[in-house]
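Action item from last week, closing it out:
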Amino acid sequence: MFRSLMVAGALLAGAAGPALAHAQGQGQGQGQGPRPDQAEFRALYKQLVETNTTLSSGSCTLAAERMAAHLKAAGVPESDLHLFSVPDHPKEGGLVAIYPGRDPKAKAVLMLAHLDVVEAKREDWTRDPFTLVEENGAFYARGVFDDKAMAATWVDTLARYKKEGFKPRRTLKLALTCGEETNGAFNGAEYLAKNKRDLIDAAFAVNEGGGGLLDAGGKPVFLGIQVGEKLSQNYTLEVTNPGGHSSRPLPDNAIYHLAGALTRIQAYRFPVAFNDTTRDLFQRLSATRKPDEQAAVATLLKSPADEPARALLERDPDLNAILHTNCVATMLDAGHATNALPQRARANINCRIFPGTSAEEVRQTLEQVIADPKVKVSIREVRNAPAPPPPLDPKVLGPAEKLAAEMWPGVPLVRTMSAGATDGAFLTPVGIPTYGISGAFGDPDGDGVHGLNERVRVKVLYDSRDYLYRLMKIYGDMPG
């Protein structure tokens, strides 16, 4: 999630003005306890967070069953609750919930969130990663932000609608899935897209991936909607060799071949590219940058091959992340003995591929850059095929931005492209355009997401809950 947030934050550095001082949103304030409805939500959130859903030792299936039980208790008929799993992955199941609308001809809106979380070791954390702790104005535990904040909010939202008797024009659907955090794992969103497409059919989906950034003092800097993402793909570089005794060194050394390949990849820069999302982002935010950066943005928008402009913007790693495809070495494995010439040398190259370019095209580019037949370049596990970005649809973006302007007046609103990967990559290609919309603001350090001591500010969570509750009512009553 946070790559898209930090990219936009980098562009907006220094943009926060006096208007942001009062842009504090709704919900719990300093020194106040939670509202009664927030206390009820907190209990649901606690139950979900404390249900271990790591791939190694947890169960998404159990989490899905508990969320289904909550919806059933709120009055959602069991016939509208669809728990699913497959025999080979009994603990990686999920839930689809249907909230029927008044107009059978109006296409549904899908709410998507993943239940699984990144691994967390108790000995590394300050607090138990699977016990919800509220401390210093924040919730701490694995998954409190990514992505159980949104999963719990969606369940809570449908339960509230049911208790209120809200009857939207459009059917609202909820899909809670597993496998988002681990390449190669059973992925519930992919399974639904391939096997239960009619069950999740929708005009569009709202997912994680968007959000905002707070400054060091906790003031909102911007709020973003994610519209598209890069493709994450790993490649293996491998050199094999007969080897021999290290007392008889030879020029044909597997490690040296691999080292030369890595050096050439390090020096290579993929061509600058723009799509509708990133062009819109740079155009909106150029005025917030220093004069030389403003000029560089203007130049690249007209002439993407301009080297000086490109070099200037690439100094910022967050800008570099969205200007083009990026490939970086992440793992090495070479040799078999300290006194032997290496018989094998391997490296993993992780690429974040700009939309419109295939994994095979990047593999061929790496071969050309390396220019060494001794180095074999192969594609490792494939998480998903390249996904085209969804359109900048005013029917989707307009209501989200209008409500955000009301809740956080004066906070800049942007559209972002994620350098990471979400489950939207499985839905957009099958005709369900998926947008990252959360109304949640993160701290500059990333809030420990995927790392140690993950946290989310209490006020941020409650404000996001209010935002999504109101937004889905708006989407639910949109004309078909």
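Closing note: The two ends are 30 Å apart (CA to CA).
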